[in-house]
């Protein structure tokens, strides 16, 4: 009834559209995707590398620090002659804290700018979004943040910890402290949920009782109600997998309701040197599990801290993801120089055993799963917002992203 | 002369649609690199949604601040199918999407199962948003909720929808969303030819939406819709039920937005809560406001422009993109409330008054009174 | 017992915070028909003012007391600038005020990010607020009681202002019939500006309370704006009574949902409930029947 006037006109238009679309619509069903030949230009005296971090949006808080240490490593490597004699020419892009933008921008970097490798990403969402792109273009991505594991791609190198290098050692530490009851507090997204799944299974084996599990959305900050549950449950320890600024609300609510590290200490996996002073509360005595602390004593670390603070200011702390990003660029340099080529397949061919004397200590690439062997550390926050190392795995732990070496792990458990 | 004018009124818009069709379907694939073409595909998806928003807002006066909900319904329906296709391609007919194994216990919720069927998925992309919009709209319009209330209500829905997605990791992938699609209705998505095919489908869908809307605007319904927007009470006195008129436009708009979302998933390779939340909804509106919400081509062209601007500006000035977006809203609403598409007619009007008159200046389109019936 | 007291008391505090945020909106939206999406950023401005005050007045026991009027003035001034620069050109175009202030809100967020950095800044809780009292098993933080007091004080002040002062009479006259008020010699322009100043200033007060929960954060405003709007709409326009009841109801209901399910589900369910409520009663809890608003 509405469409009574002029059927003719609409008919013509639809036919036009259909004709146009049919003419252009020739999908091919057969065949594997032909990996487009790499367009990386290695003829000049520079080599392009892509730095893809969020400099806008909610994650800019964290990702800017990664960008800073990537820039530092670039300066240093260039000053020392570059990679295979070629100076690094960074192409920087903003991921805008949006996974879809990460997917778009990494494609631009790989196929438009023809960079030899991309460094960046922070959230698992951003990495998951980039993964299919970097695989289909056969590019390289260096991902610098500890994450929930259960992933391995031949096109990604993971220079942050996987769960058996951070979560599991943290549980070993808790066991060694005689912890009997544990409360889990996390942000409502993938990393905390997966980490807690692992924690719960391992806790069952260690004989630690989980007395509560609470999640709050990433962009929420009021933890009062959840902390009240911690007060009621009286656990020996709180395992904190909260990410980002939500930590501030958690820590404030925790102290307000009379909890303290004396009775109910917290062990965190995302509070580092950068975050500790931003809580608006003295967090002395709380714990954190990482693979690097600014307080790590090594010549490599001393040099790293000095260079970083010379460039960005003496008040800037260094933290685990920053160190992992810094390390990733050097690992790439070592990979290329061992392969004597910027070619992805050649690099992957020689990857196993490539090492670097990183600020955290010596790290070595596992050629199988592209993660790196790292030493696990537990630090206790002191009054200067630095971490005193109170526990260490003693030697680098081989990465095991799928926890194949842990008999208690049952991925399909409820 | 009069005849020529009539001819222009009938066929002029169609000429515009034809120009867009040729630009998107013939010129763009010929000159753009696969990467840029894929980007354009993304903007086209926003433009499809934009056409729907233009229908509801520009012509119907219903500003929906939460169109992301419908974008997400379509996007997730499609993504669920693609996810299942990808799983079935590697793991056989009973395979379960990878993230359910990673984050859950490897069992699939029952409501996922029908999405193994492509036909069901396509039906869901149309029907689910239509039903949701009908239920929501019926209650709201019958009770004569208008303007600002409606905008805020729907924005709250977008926030709730995104939060729900984030909270249901085992069912919807949570914050990460759904990604890693390999197959699109049997076609390998890693193949550049097939990517171009998906683009072509999106561009065609946009052209079809434009034609549908053009036809609608010419019809009696289109006139009734505008009449309802401008003087709902009078329409009621004339014996029509404005609620029905608005409902039809609202449902149709929801379906278009959903189709945009459904194509967004295979083109970008991901759909996540950040593509459907309140901020994403605002971005959808930005394009429509820029292009001219009450115009036929304005919303689509505006959405394409905002999409393009977002990519280009964020590539050139990564830190300043938000400023541009903010300024865009302010400048457009203050100086070109009917959108850039109607600047020429506005300039003529402006010349008479020289300056924007403060207060009580009715604008060209979509003057909404803050009205709620008791 | 604490399964009941915790959500009740914590929810009341959340409701109080919502109320402070919503009072300002109720003024500008309910009384002037302006939908200010940048209201959340005014809240944020209040939080940043608290942070800045602590840089100047280093005694944290005092700084919060200084921050309260400072935040009111800063947020109020921002509101005044917004009114003079933009809003005054678009009264009676509520949807346009909505769009234009969305733009302002984006600008302010990015500005905050550029000026203060994307990392939030710490706000220290004063000693006299750092603690709790045990109420039937719930360690009720002084901070939550302070928020409730703040809301009550803001409400009482605003109520008295509207009821007993000549300015209040002028506001009410303008709300009830703008044209008639104008013919009676009320300068509605001045009334509008003062109203916008006070309404925005209240957001600044809310910002002080927010900063005590979680410090500053450039994106924090967006967390509160939609809930606050829902409260105003659910409460009904032009009536503070409705806003008050709606704010505390939403706060307490959310807290109970949080206790029973999770924070995420609580937000989803509360929003859904408000939307359903508005479907049944689109005019909100209470309506003010006037010729001016109909």
Automatic annotation (TrEMBL), chain A:
Pfam families to which the protein is assigned, alphabetical: Peripla_BP_5
Matches recorded under InterPro entries: ABC_urea-bd_UrtA, Peripla_BP_I
Highest taxon listed in the record's lineage: Bacteria
Xref: NCBIfam families: urea_ABC_UrtA
Species whose genome carries this gene: Nocardioides ginsengisoli
Record-given protein name: Urea ABC transporter substrate-binding protein
Signal peptide per UniProt: 1-24
CDD domains per record: PBP1_FmdD-like
Keyword check for Translocase: no
UniProtKB/TrEMBL annotation, chain B:
Entry's localization field: Cell membrane
Keyword Transmembrane appears in the UniProt entry: yes
Membrane topology, record value: Multi-pass membrane protein
TM regions (residue ranges): 12-32, 44-73, 118-141, 148-167, 173-190, 197-217, 247-271, 283-309, 321-343
Domain of life from the UniProt record: Bacteria
Chief localisation class: membrane
UniProt source species: Nocardioides ginsengisoli
Protein name, UniProt field: Urea ABC transporter permease subunit UrtC
Sorted UniProt keywords: Cell membrane, Membrane, Transmembrane, Transmembrane helix
InterPro entries assigned to the protein according to its UniProt record, in alphabetical order: ABC_transp_permease (IPR001851), ABC_transptr_urea_perm_UrtC (IPR017778), LivM-like (IPR043428)
Keyword Repressor: no
Automatic annotation (TrEMBL), chain C:
InterPro entries registered for this protein in UniProt: ABC_transp_permease, ABC_UrtB_bac, BCAA_transport_permease
Keyword set, alphabetical order: Amino-acid transport, Cell membrane, Membrane, Transmembrane, Transmembrane helix, Transport
The keyword Nuclease is assigned to this record: no
Cell compartments where the protein resides: Cell membrane
Lipid bilayer topology: Multi-pass membrane protein
Segments passing through the bilayer: 64-87, 145-162, 194-215, 268-288
UniProt keyword annotation of Transmembrane present: yes
Lineage top rank: taxon: Bacteria
Membership in a protein family: Belongs to the binding-protein-dependent transport system permease family. LivHM subfamily.
Protein name: Urea ABC transporter permease subunit UrtB
Organism from which the protein derives: Nocardioides ginsengisoli
């Amino acid at each position: 009834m509405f469409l009574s006037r002029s059927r003719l006109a609409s008919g013509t238009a639809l036919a036009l559209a259909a004709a146009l679309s049919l003419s252009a619509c020739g999908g091919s069903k057969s065949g594997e995707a032909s990996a487009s030949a790499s367009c990386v230009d290695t003829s000049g005296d520079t080599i392009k590398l892509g730095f893809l971090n969020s400099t806008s949006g909610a994650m800019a808080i964290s990702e800017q620090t990664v960008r800073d240490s990537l820039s530092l490593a670039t300066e240093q490597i260039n000053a020392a002659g570059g990679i295979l004699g070629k100076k690094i020419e960074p192409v920087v892009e903003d991921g805008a804290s949006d996974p879809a933008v990460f997917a778009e921008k990494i494609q631009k970097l790989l196929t438009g700018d023809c960079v030899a490798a991309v460094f960046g990403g922070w959230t698992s969402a951003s990495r998951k979004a980039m993964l299919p792109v970097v695989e289909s273009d056969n590019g390289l991505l260096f991902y610098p943040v500890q994450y929930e594991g259960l992933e391995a791609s031949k096109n990604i190198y993971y220079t942050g910890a996987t769960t058996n290098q951070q979560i599991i050692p943290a549980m070993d530490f808790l066991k060694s402290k005689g912890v009997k009851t544990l409360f889990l507090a996390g942000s409502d997204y993938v990393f905390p949920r997966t980490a807690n799944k692992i924690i719960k299974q391992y806790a069952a084996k260690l004989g630690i009782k989980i007395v509560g599990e609470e999640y709050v959305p990433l962009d929420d900050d009021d933890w009062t109600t959840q902390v009240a549950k911690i007060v009621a449950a009286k656990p020996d320890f709180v395992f904190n997998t909260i990410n980002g600024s939500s930590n501030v609300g958690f820590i404030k609510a925790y102290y307000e309701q009379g909890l303290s590290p004396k009775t109910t200490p917290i062990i965190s996996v995302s509070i580092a040197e950068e975050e500790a002073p931003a809580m608006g509360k003295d967090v002395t005595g709380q714990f954190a599990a990482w693979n690097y602390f600014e307080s790590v004593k090594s010549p490599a670390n001393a040099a790293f801290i000095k260079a970083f603070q010379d460039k960005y200011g003496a008040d800037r702390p260094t933290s685990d993801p920053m160190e992992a990003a810094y390390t990733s660029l050097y690992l790439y340099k070592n990979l290329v120089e061992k392969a004597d080529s910027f070619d992805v397949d050649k690099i992957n061919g020689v990857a196993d055993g490539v090492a670097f004397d990183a600020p955290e200590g010596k790290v070595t690439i596992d050629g199988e799963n592209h993660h790196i062997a790292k030493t696990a550390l537990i630090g206790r926050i002191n009054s200067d917002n630095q971490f005193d190392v109170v526990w260490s795995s003693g030697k680098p732990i081989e990465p095991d992203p799928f926890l194949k070496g842990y008999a208690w792990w049952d991925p399909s458990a409820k | 002369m009069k005849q020529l004018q009539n001819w222009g009124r009938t066929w002029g818009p169609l000429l515009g649609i034809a120009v867009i069709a040729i630009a998107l379907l013939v010129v763009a694939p010929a000159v753009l690199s696969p990467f840029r073409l894929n980007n354009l595909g993304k903007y086209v998806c926003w433009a499809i949604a934009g056409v729907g928003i233009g229908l509801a807002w520009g012509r119907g006066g219903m500003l929906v601040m939460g169109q992301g909900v419908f974008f997400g319904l379509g996007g997730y329906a499609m993504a669920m199918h693609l996810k299942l296709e990808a799983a079935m391609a590697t793991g056989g007919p009973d395979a379960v999407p990878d993230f359910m194994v990673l984050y859950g216990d490897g069992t699939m919720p029952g409501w996922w199962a029908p999405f193994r069927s492509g036909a069901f998925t396509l039906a869901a992309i149309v029907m689910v948003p239509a039903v949701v919009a009908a239920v929501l709209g019926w209650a709201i319009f019958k009770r004569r909720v208008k303007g600002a209330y409606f905008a805020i209500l729907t924005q709250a829905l977008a926030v709730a929808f995104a939060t729900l997605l984030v909270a249901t990791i085992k069912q919807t992938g949570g914050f990460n969303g759904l990604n890693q699609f390999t197959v699109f209705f049997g076609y390998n998505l890693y193949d550049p030819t097939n990517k171009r095919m998906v683009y072509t489908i999106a561009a065609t869908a946009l052209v079809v939406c434009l034609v549908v809307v053009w036809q609608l605007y010419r019809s009696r319904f289109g006139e009734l819709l505008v009449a309802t927007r401008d003087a709902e009470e009078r329409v009621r006195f004339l014996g029509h039920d404005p609620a029905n008129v608005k409902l039809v436009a609202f449902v149709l708009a929801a379906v278009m937005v959903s189709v945009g979302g459904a194509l967004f998933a295979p083109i970008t390779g991901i759909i996540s809560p950040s593509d459907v939340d309140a901020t994403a909804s605002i971005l959808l509106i930005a394009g429509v406001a820029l292009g001219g919400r009450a115009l036929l081509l304005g919303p689509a062209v505006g959405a394409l422009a905002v999409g393009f601007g977002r990519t280009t500006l964020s590539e050139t000035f990564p830190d300043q993109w938000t400023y541009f977006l903010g300024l865009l809203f302010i400048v457009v609403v203050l100086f070109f409330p009917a959108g850039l598409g109607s600047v020429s007619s506005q300039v003529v009007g402006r010349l008479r008054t020289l300056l924007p008159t403060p207060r009580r200046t009715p604008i060209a389109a979509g003057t909404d009174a803050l009205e709620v019936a008791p | 017992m604490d399964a009941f007291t915790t959500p009740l008391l914590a929810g009341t505090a959340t409701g109080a915070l919502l109320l402070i945020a919503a009072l300002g909106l109720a003024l500008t939206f309910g009384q002037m028909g302006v939908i200010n999406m940048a209201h959340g950023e005014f809240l944020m401005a209040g939080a940043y003012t608290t942070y800045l005050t602590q840089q100047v007045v280093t005694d944290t026991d005092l700084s919060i007391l200084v921050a309260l009027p400072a935040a009111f003035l800063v947020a109020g001034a921002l509101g005044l600038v917004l009114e003079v620069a933009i809003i005054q050109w678009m009264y009676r175009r509520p949807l346009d005020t909505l769009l234009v202030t969305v733009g302002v809100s984006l600008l302010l967020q990015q500005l905050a990010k550029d000026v203060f950095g994307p990392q939030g800044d710490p706000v220290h809780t004063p000693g006299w607020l750092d603690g709790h009292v045990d109420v039937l098993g719930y360690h009720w933080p002084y901070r939550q009681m302070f928020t409730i007091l703040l809301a009550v004080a803001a409400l009482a002040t605003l109520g008295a202002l509207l009821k007993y002062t000549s300015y209040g009479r002028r506001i009410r006259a303008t709300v009830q019939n703008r044209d008639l008020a104008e013919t009676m010699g009320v300068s509605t322009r001045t009334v509008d500006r003062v109203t916008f100043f006070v309404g925005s200033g209240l957001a600044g007060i809310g910002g002080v309370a927010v900063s005590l929960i979680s410090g500053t954060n450039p994106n924090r405003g967006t967390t509160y704006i939609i809930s606050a709007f829902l409260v105003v709409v659910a409460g009904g326009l032009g009536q503070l009574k409705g806003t008050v009841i709606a704010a505390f109801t939403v706060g307490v209901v959310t807290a109970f949902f949080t206790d029973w399910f999770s924070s995420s589900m609580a937000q989803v369910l509360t929003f859904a409930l408000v939307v359903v409520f508005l479907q049944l009663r689109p005019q909100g809890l209470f309506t003010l029947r006037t010729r001016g608003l109909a």
